[in-house]
Design a protein that fits this description.
With 703 residues, the chain is an alpha+beta fold. It is 26% helix and 24% strand. It is built from 18 helices and 25 strands. The strands form six sheets. Strands 3-5-1-13-10-11-12 form a seven-stranded mixed beta sheet. Strands 7-17-16-15-8 form a five-stranded mixed beta sheet, sandwiched between helices. α5 links the parallel β11 and β12. The termini are far apart.
């Protein structure tokens, strides 16, 4: 009997039934004996110092166990994340910063008592708005997390001056907030000097190591558990302040404690995507071939964070041009710390680049798909290395065929009914591919059952299912024989769930562990000892080898829009994404990720906008009544298609990451479709009714 292959099968998620029936337990669901509850006291100034904390009234409330603040908090070791230095300094860097915490017998008592904690301040002037006309902008560190901060090739200014066709435009994106379905939460307790936390984290191993350093104990004395995580998108990639508060509170009262952040507190603690102002200058010959590209980005960060979005980074590898420069500028403001958000850098950066490419197509009187094809390249313009695979041209051509692109001008003319204008737009997508060192173990009981363990986190992507499929094929057994256990730092250490790296990083470790187990079974003559057999693998040495290829996923996004000429309302009845993401492990989970990213991009284009109060320094849009996101009624007909390819440079499975590429380019495709429909070029997001009805070109560095 021939064994059926698991990789490539659209298997349902293993945890699906538990999730839809309520059986899956998230951090906030954890119920331990003698559990206490924590509520935080937020700063009521935007910049300055805490001069006194007066906990007496709160402590007098029945059921209050403790009030923790800078005056009685244990000293923590310093880390590179200043936001984790909870209650370690009287300085206030932004409104809403935690300045005290109340521990009580119930969440209701804790929140009521938190309002009774008196705090005195000495306030200083603050600055909270990203304004490129003001001073204070500095370049980030010389090297970003995965690449140089800036780059320059050739003579950009001379090439732009001599180019027959030029585009000089400035694009703006607002703050984007994390509003995952599951709010950030932690349950913590100490026992015999060891700390256990249930946490909403995208990386149990990394969170364990940071907590161990903060509290000055060995990593083997910390355990982090995250069985189910209800969305993260980057906001749960690194530990947040609430996990430190919970650990401190549990230490103070000597019993388990729980803290669950409110929806409003997420705008302070969960991080957000920084607003950006991006100037792009393109120079091309009369046939549309790029001669020069300049992409300069301005963004903000907090007083305590070194986070940078790097929106210009994808421009380095997207299109060939002999003269190129990318630069990043950042200013520190009295605001909460920004953080990673789905496709950091690529998401806002490709909105600007792909909008500018559309403007160049108009200036060259070229079809936008054709312009991109003319500037395709087999080698990475930045590194000079060949791409492991680059099927951007295939994505563009297949997408144009399936979307009816050749008919777009006829459709615009025929289907516009006087009140509604119709338009179609396109944009390219890309995301770099990363693999981070991870460890995995696999054990067999000798009776046809296999158990894989790895400290990975499933943030809704179907990791359990996909890793089981990978293991089954590596072991050459049926997927029903494989159990996958994840979400616990007690398992072999794993990298975080982020940068579209989870499946490739963890999958590589699982493949290597399975290969080692099969080798071990062979050494036993094919007979497993009575106690079973286990093998482990660590990919650190394998991934330390220098890359020979530039590894990216690519795609093409197509959007159809209608614009109401009376109201300015934009609707998106149809979207198509065609993606080259290597071998597809599970078509069902891949489609879910791609469509979810496209809906998120639609929301970015039409709805989402963080607005900060300049006077008081807090976000007006700090809950879902003010921060609008796309709903089912806004979601159009969406089709996500993957072309056939394999990339064994990126992973031994031939797969690439898919978690982020769906959002990249979506907003630009919609904005370009609005221009096609109306003739108006809107360079600031969201594409609101106000912007549609006003003059579309905002003031800025270019025109």
């Amino acid at each position: 009997m021939t064994r059926r292959m698991s990789v490539g099968a659209a298997l349902p998620r293993r945890e699906a039934r538990a999730k839809v029936t309520g059986g899956a337990r998230y951090t906030g669901d954890a119920a331990l004996p003698d559990l206490a509850y924590v509520a935080v006291v937020p700063a009521e100034i935007t910049h300055g110092r805490v001069t006194a904390v007066r906990p007496e009234e709160a402590l007098a409330r029945s059921g209050v166990l403790a009030v923790i603040h800078g005056g009685n908090c244990p000293r923590l070791n310093r880390t590179g994340a200043g936001d984790l230095a909870v209650f370690q300094s009287p300085s206030v860097g932004h409104r809403g910063q935690f300045v005290a915490a109340v521990v009580a017998e119930s969440p209701q008592i804790a929140h009521e008592a938190a309002r009774r904690v008196g705090v005195d301040y000495s306030a200083d002037p603050h600055r909270v708005s990203l304004d490129i006309a003001c001073d204070g902008f500095r370049q980030p560190p010389d090297r970003g997390p995965f690449f140089p901060t800036d780059c320059s090739h050739g003579d950009v200014e001379a090439a732009l001056s001599d180019a027959p066709v030029r585009v000089d435009a400035t694009y703006r994106t607002p703050p984007y907030h994390h509003h995952a379905l599951e709010p950030h939460a932690t349950v913590a307790y100490w026992q015999d000097g060891a700390l256990t936390v249930h946490d909403t984290t995208q990386g149990p191993s990394g969170t364990r190591d940071i907590l161990a350093h903060l509290f000055g104990i060995g990593p083997d004395r910390v355990r982090v558990i995250a069985r189910h995580v209800g969305g993260g998108f980057g906001s749960k990639a690194a530990p947040r302040a609430q996990v430190v508060v919970a650990a401190l509170a549990a230490l103070a009262v000597g019993r388990p404690v729980k803290t669950v952040l409110t929806r409003e507190q997420l705008s302070v603690v969960a991080g957000y995507r920084t607003p950006t102002v991006q100037r792009i200058r393109l120079g091309a010959d009369a046939d549309g071939h790029l001669l020069a590209v300049s992409h300069v980005s301005f963004e903000q960060t907090s007083l305590t964070s070194d986070h940078c979005e790097y929106p210009a980074a994808p421009t380095r590898t997207m299109y060939a041009a002999p003269n190129r420069e990318t630069r990043h500028w950042r200013v520190r403001l009295h605001v909460p710390s920004p953080t990673w958000m789905r496709a950091p850098g690529e998401c806002p950066g490709m909105f600007a680049l792909e909008s500018a490419m559309d403007e160049l197509a108009v200036a060259c009187a070229l079809d936008p798909v054709e312009l991109r094809l003319r500037n395709d390249t087999a080698d990475d313009p930045h590194s000079g290395r060949p791409f492991s695979t680059r099927n951007l041209a295939g994505c563009l051509r297949l997408g144009a065929e399936r979307f009816g692109w050749a008919e777009r001008d006829r459709l615009r003319a025929e289907y516009g009914d006087g009140r509604r204008l119709l338009g179609m737009g396109v944009a390219a997508s890309t995301i770099p591919q990363y693999r981070f060192p991870s460890r995995a173990s696999v054990r067999t009981d000798g009776r046809g059952r296999y158990t894989v363990r790895i400290a990975a986190a499933d943030i809704g992507t179907g990791a359990r299912t996909v890793l089981a499929q990978i293991a089954a094929d590596a072991l050459r057994v049926d997927v029903e024989q494989v159990t996958v256990e994840i979400g616990d730092s007690a398992y072999p250490s794993a990298s975080w769930a982020g940068r579209s790296s989870g499946t490739t990083s963890w999958g590589t470790a699982v493949v290597r562990a399975c290969e080692a187990l099969r080798t071990g079974i062979g050494r036993c003559g094919g007979l497993v000892p009575d106690g079973g057999l286990e093998a482990t693998a660590d990919t650190l040495a394998e991934l330390a080898e220098a890359r020979t290829h530039s590894q990216h996923a690519f795609g093409a996004q197509f959007a159809r829009v209608t614009v109401d000429t009376s109201t300015g309302e934009i609707r998106v009845p149809r979207m198509l994404g065609v993606f080259a993401v290597g071998r597809v492990i599970n078509p069902a989970t891949v489609r879910s990720q791609l469509v979810g990213g496209m809906v998120m991009g639609l929301s970015m284009a039409l709805c989402e906008e963080g607005v900060i109060d300049r006077t008081y320094g807090h976000f007006h849009s700090r809950d879902l009544s003010a921060y609008h996101v796309a709903t089912f009624a806004d979601a159009p007909e969406i089709e996500a298609v993957c072309i056939d390819e394999e990339d064994f440079h990126t992973s031994p499975m031939g797969a690439k990451g898919v978690g982020e590429i769906g959002i990249v380019g979506t907003a630009a495709a919609i904005a370009n479709a609005v221009h096609h429909a109306t003739g108006r070029r809107i360079r600031s997001l969201p594409l609101s009714v106000r912007r549609v009805r006003e003059d579309a070109a905002p003031p800025g560095l270019g025109t």
